[in-house]
Design a protein that fits this description.
The chain is of the alpha/beta class. It is built from twelve helices and five strands.
């Protein structure tokens, strides 16, 4: 069991998905199961347990409503009986940071006898300990993701630059510090700056605009809100309120976009693939290469 923790926007889910991909690739010549569960709310994890059960046994049908802890027990039993000695990885994404003890009520009552499976959790909490999940002390390894340093953060901001002026590098370093080294914000700002100001010193112009708006003195939560709000403004100005891109952007906060397949996102955008790409371009969705998964 491994728990990846860190502040919002640090890249916990991205890290977990990369681990899952590598795990699957390493076991591709064997019978293997990799499954992502949204652990943010009880309803979300309840539904994902049912999907897991249907994956393990296509004939599974829930005859009556059951509480989440009983559904979790059914999932544990199915893993034990269907997977046997096969390898599997369950990723519990976004475990509540304010009440990890609450998550324990949604988790498997016991992990004994589950074979060679692995568990990976992402959470902002550093309190997801063995006693909370009813496993042995020290059975959960906690990995704390640090924020990026000034130079590493600046490199993300300068990723699209072919040539970097002194002024642009200084702007990148200031923005890296201002955004507290959070990859989610850094990528969003990089793409928004390029979309708004073109290829000529976009970061310098973005920083100047920040200064005019007084954003430098904002709290981190206010900065996150400001970065995402600007994405709405940008899509609204370029595509209009009735555009597929704006409608898709309006619902993303409800459906966890980094966990959805490309075809579903296109469906939400009335089949308009260009609308999905627009949100990739401004940094709201994952890179284009991730959308087909």
């Amino acid at each position: 069991m491994v728990a990846i923790s860190g502040t919002a926007g640090i890249g916990k889910s991205t890290c977990a998905i990369e681990v899952a991909r590598r795990f699957y690739a390493a076991c591709a010549d064997q019978s293997v199961l990799v499954w992502l569960l949204n652990a943010e709310t009880e309803d979300a994890i309840h539904q994902d347990y049912i999907r897991l059960l249907q994956k393990l046994d296509p004939r599974f049908k829930l005859e009556k409503d059951l509480p989440t802890h009983e559904i979790a027990q059914l999932a544990a039993d199915a893993l034990q009986s269907k997977m046997g000695s096969s390898r599997w990885l369950l990723v519990f994404d976004n475990v509540p940071d304010d009440a990890p003890g609450q998550f324990a009520e949604w988790f498997f009552p016991s992990t004994r006898g589950l074979g060679v499976g692995r568990f990976l959790f992402t959470t902002r909490s550093n309190r997801l300990e063995g006693d909370v999940l009813r496993v042995g002390e020290g059975d959960i390894k906690l990995l704390q993701l640090p924020t990026l340093g000034e130079e590493d953060g600046a490199q993300i901001l300068l990723q699209d630059h072919k040539q970097v002026s002194t002024r642009e590098r200084e702007a990148a370093e200031k923005l890296s510090v201002r955004l507290e080294g959070l990859p989610l914000l850094l990528r969003a700002v990089r793409k928004e700056a390029k979309s708004r100001f073109g290829r000529t010193c976009p970061l310098s112009k973005y920083l100047d605009d920040d200064e005019k708006r007084g954003i430098a003195s904002q709290t981190l939560e206010e900065k996150v809100d400001q970065v995402l709000r600007r994405s709405f403004d940008l899509v609204l100005a370029k595509d209009g309120r009735d555009s597929p891109a704006y409608r898709l952007l309006s619902v993303l906060g409800c459906i966890a976009p980094t966990q959805l397949p490309h075809r579903f996102l296109c469906h939400c955008a009335d089949g308009d693939e260009a609308a999905v790409r627009r949100l990739v371009d401004i940094g709201i969705l994952q890179e284009a290469g991730d959308l087909g998964s």
